[in-house]
């Protein structure tokens, strides 16, 4: 297209390179985009998982399993659905650096592996799925930048000012219809998806803060929302794809997953709430035996943890309970009271106790008073000996 003097470009130009070298290493922008996207997804999920009361280091553990699974699953899906785009070399099936990762295949296998790992750790899967859903969309958005450098994932011809310029050799390699080869600018569907992914991620975060979404709910909306956009995107794309009944294969997948995601969300939201676990059973011991506070526990576990903590720690009991414990400790261990005047008073009080029962009807008050004085002296002596010293540390 022609350019006026000093005017803005009337299309988005294609980059002249798709990789760069660091010594002998050839770094592809497509791979770099996914590396950055995965890193951002891990950081976002760590933050969201910590907010739920979980251990953020669990996210790192899960990432070691789901990232390779996602790459493998994505490549398998790509090889099955677009066999014509596999490079014609012996390693073509595995050449992910040239492009070709099917999102649905990657998410499916990563979800299976991640669920298996979480269950091995004793953690409920649903809350973690909600935590990771917006992060997946951010990773996908950043990964779409790699499609720009690979000059792929574009739609039909357009004259819009944001049309993407595709060089002729890439039009041929992209497998677009012959009648479209003479056009030079095409719909940048990768850019549309990038914008949608970020908008949907922001919406899921907002919804999670303003509505009561149950475990698996946000993940179900992620599946439905992303797949719904793909219906629109697949209607625009003209690059190579397997077709069925005159439509792109991914169109059928998009429709099926949109419906499944919406039904899944409704079922999840109607299901009765159940207790769930966000901390591994050995987490307190791993932290040096310090029990997690209620703020660090899941909502379902916070109340039981508080109750058990109160039972297990007399130092945290109410003042009345603490006084009772002090008194009983002092009565059980009179030998710990310091010798001297206080000890003599205590012994006298114990000696006077039996006499109180033998006094006449008009004298029991003195015996009771003497007994009370003796017990008070014992408590005071126990305090001096440090028996109740724990209360000063609360």
TrEMBL record:
A 1,2-diacyl-sn-glycero-3-phospho-(1'-sn-glycerol) binds at residue 144. Coiled coil: none annotated. Its main location: membrane. It is a multi-pass membrane protein. Pathway: Protein modification; lipoprotein biosynthesis (diacylglyceryl transfer). Its EC number is 2.5.1.145. GO terms for cellular component: plasma membrane. Pfam families: LGT. The keyword Transmembrane applies. The chain crosses the membrane at residues 27-46, 58-78, 90-116, 128-149, 190-208, 215-232, 244-267. Keywords: Cell membrane, Lipoprotein, Membrane, Transferase, Transmembrane, Transmembrane helix. The keyword Lipoprotein applies. One of its GO terms (molecular function) is phosphatidylglycerol-prolipoprotein diacylglyceryl transferase activity. It is found in: Cell membrane. Residues 279-394 are annotated as: Disordered. Residues 281-339, 369-394 have a biased composition (Low complexity). One of its GO terms (biological process) is lipoprotein biosynthetic process. PANTHER family: PHOSPHATIDYLGLYCEROL--PROLIPOPROTEIN DIACYLGLYCERYL TRANSFERASE, PROLIPOPROTEIN DIACYLGLYCERYL TRANSFERASE. Catalyzes the transfer of the diacylglyceryl group from phosphatidylglycerol to the sulfhydryl group of the N-terminal cysteine of a prolipoprotein, the first step in the formation of mature lipoproteins. Belongs to the Lgt family. This is Phosphatidylglycerol--prolipoprotein diacylglyceryl transferase. The gene is lgt.
């Amino acid at each position: 297209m022609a350019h006026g003097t000093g005017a803005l470009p009337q299309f988005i130009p294609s980059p002249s390179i798709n990789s760069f070298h660091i010594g002998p290493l050839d770094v592809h922008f497509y791979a770099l985009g996914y590396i950055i996207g995965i890193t951002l997804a891990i950081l976002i999920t760590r933050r969201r998982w910590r907010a739920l009361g979980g251990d953020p280091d669990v996210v790192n553990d899960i990432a070691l399993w789901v990232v390779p699974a996602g790459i493998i699953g994505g490549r398998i899906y790509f090889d099955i659905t677009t066999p014509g785009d596999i490079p014609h070399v012996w390693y073509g099936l595995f050449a992910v650096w040239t492009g070709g990762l099917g999102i649905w295949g990657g998410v499916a296998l990563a979800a299976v592996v991640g669920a298996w790992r979480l269950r091995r750790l004793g953690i409920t899967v649903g809350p973690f799925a909600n935590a990771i859903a917006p992060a997946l969309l951010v990773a996908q958005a950043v990964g779409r930048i790699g499609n720009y450098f690979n000059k792929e994932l574009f739609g039909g011809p357009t004259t819009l000012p944001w049309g993407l310029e595709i060089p002729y050799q890439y039009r041929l390699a992209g497998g677009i219809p012959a009648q479209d080869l003479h056009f030079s600018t095409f719909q940048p569907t990768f850019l549309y998806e990038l914008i949608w992914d970020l908008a949907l991620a922001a919406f899921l975060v907002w919804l999670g803060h303003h509505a009561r979404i149950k475990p698996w709910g946000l993940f179900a909306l992620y599946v439905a929302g992303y797949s719904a956009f793909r219906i629109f995107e697949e209607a625009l794309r003209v690059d190579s794809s397997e077709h069925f009944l005159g439509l792109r294969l991914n169109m059928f997948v998009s429709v099926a997953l949109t419906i499944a995601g919406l039904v899944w969300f409704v079922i999840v939201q109607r299901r009765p709430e159940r207790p769930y676990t966000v901390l591994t059973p050995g987490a307190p011991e791993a932290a040096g035996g310090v029990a997690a506070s209620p703020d660090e526990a899941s909502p379902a576990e916070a109340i039981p943890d508080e109750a058990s903590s109160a039972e297990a720690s007399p130092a945290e009991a109410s003042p009345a309970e603490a006084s009772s414990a002090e008194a009983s400790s002092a009565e059980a261990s009179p030998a710990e009271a310091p010798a001297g005047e206080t000890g003599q008073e205590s012994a006298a009080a114990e000696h006077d106790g039996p006499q109180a029962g033998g006094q006449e009807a008009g004298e029991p008050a003195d015996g009771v008073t003497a007994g009370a004085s003796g017990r008070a002296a014992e408590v005071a002596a126990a305090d001096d000996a440090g028996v109740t010293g724990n209360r000063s540390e609360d």
